[in-house]
Structures are given as structure tokens and as C-alpha cells.
Amino acid sequence: VLAAQGLSEVWSAPFVSDERHTALGYSAEDARARTVALANPLSDEAPLMRISILSTLVDSLRRNIARGASDVGLFEVGLVVALDGPQRKAPTIDVGLQPEPELLAEIRAAVPAQPRHLGFLLAGMRERAGWWGDGRVADLADAIAVAQSITDALALPVTVSADQTAMPFHPGRCARLSLADGTLVGHVGELHPKVTVALGLPSIAYTEGRC
Question: What is the pTM of this model?
Fold first, then answer.
């Protein structure tokens, strides 16, 4: 559905840092409480698992723009960590032994929830200029339409309403997508100017993701 609308799918390594949380306007302390630190990170600069697709998707957008692709639409589907409460330590056993059911249950219980989320980013022109006209810069209505195309394809009727959710969104330029019973599906919004500056992104970029 997203590819048919001109967005390109990307994959990003799910590793982040406290600095990334701060750049997105998250409280580093609160973000740490929702994720886990890696015992053997690939890089000391990214020792944490991501709590949102946006946390790493912005890197793909920044690379595209650095290479001259100013009109970009990207999306990613992947896992995020949603730790609720203190992290539990999983028990271990010797290699080659089949864990007893009780031990296996303890191991699984120690693994934090990792829901699958979808996020996308739009930047630059949504309609390119040409003989047909001057073109048009992507705006919030485009982002909402993209998000609704996903829910329509899944046969999930949603209500779109204005929301004053916190960072990384611009206040007053964020929409909430909810099911009929009020269940939150996700947010769509313009990234806050402070976020775009901190991340080295264009002054206007639109994003959607399950929160």
C-alpha cells in the first residue's frame, strides 16, 4: 500500500542512544525505563534498543537528503521494545540441554514486549513540478491520507482528531488515529522544529508511527 504511493521501504538497525532520545524530545530517563541496554552493543554510541521506529528511521531520511534526494518518502515495519516495569534477568542453563517447561517460562517472561510497529516519513515535494504545474510540498494532510490508506487496507475504520501529544511533534500539527472504542492506533504529525534542527533534517518533515 505504501510503496504504491511512492514511499520506499527501508530497514534500520534497532540500536539508539540517550542522545537520540534527547534529540527527539523524549526524556532520556523515561526512555531508558521503557527499553533495555545491550550487554554487547555493536557500537558504544548506540547501546540501547529502540522504543519507536522513528528513532532510527530518521537516519535513513538524513542519509537520503545528504546524497541529494530532497523529496523523500520512507517507511519501515519493525519491532520496538515496550518494557513495562523493571527488566527481569533470564535464567541460563548449559548448552545442549532442553529447558524444563518452568524454566522456559521464566526465560520467556524475562523478554520484554516487542510489538511490531510501522512508521513513515515524508519530506520535500509530495507532487513534483513539471509541465503539469509547480508541484506541491508534502503537508499534514498528505501524512494523514497515507496513514488512512493503511487503515483502509486493513479494514480498520479510524477517527482522526487533533492531538496535543508531546514531542517529537509540533504542537497543534499532530493528529490522533483512534478506533471506535478509543483505542490509539497511532499519531501523525509535523516534527517539531527543535527536533528537525537537532537531527539535521529539513525544516518540515511529517511522520507517522504507533506510539
Answer: 0.87
Q: Checking phi first, is residue 6 left (phi over 0); if not, alpha (psi -120 to 50) or beta?
A: left
Q: Are strands 136-137 and 125-127 parallel, antiparallel or unpaired?
A: antiparallel
Strands (E), 64-203: 72-79, 116-123, 125-127, 136-137, 159-162, 169-178, 184-191
CA-to-CA separations, 187 to 24, 59, 93, 99, 158, in angstroms, rounded: 15, 20, 42, 41, 12
At 90 the pLDDT is 86
In angstroms, what CA-CA distances link 164 with 18, 51, 170, 175, 176?
24, 20, 8, 8, 9
Q: Under a CB-based contact definition with an 8 Å cutoff, are residues 25 and 167 in contact?
A: yes
Residues 6+ apart with CB under 8 A from 112: 35, 36, 81, 82, 83, 84, 87
Give residue 211's pLDDT: 39
> Would you give the distance in Å from CA 183 to the centre of its chain?
18
The total number of residues shown for the chain amounts to 211
Residue 48, burial from CB neighbour count under 10 angstroms (0-12, 13-18, 19+): buried
For the chain, residues with pLDDT lower than 50 are 211
Is the preceding peptide bond at 168 cis, omega within 30 degrees of 0?
yes
Distance, in Å, from the CA atom of 123 to the CA atom of 148, rounded to the nearest integer, reads 18
Distance of CA 172 to the CA centre of its chain: 20
The closest of 110, 112, 143, 109 to 126, measured between CA atoms, is 143
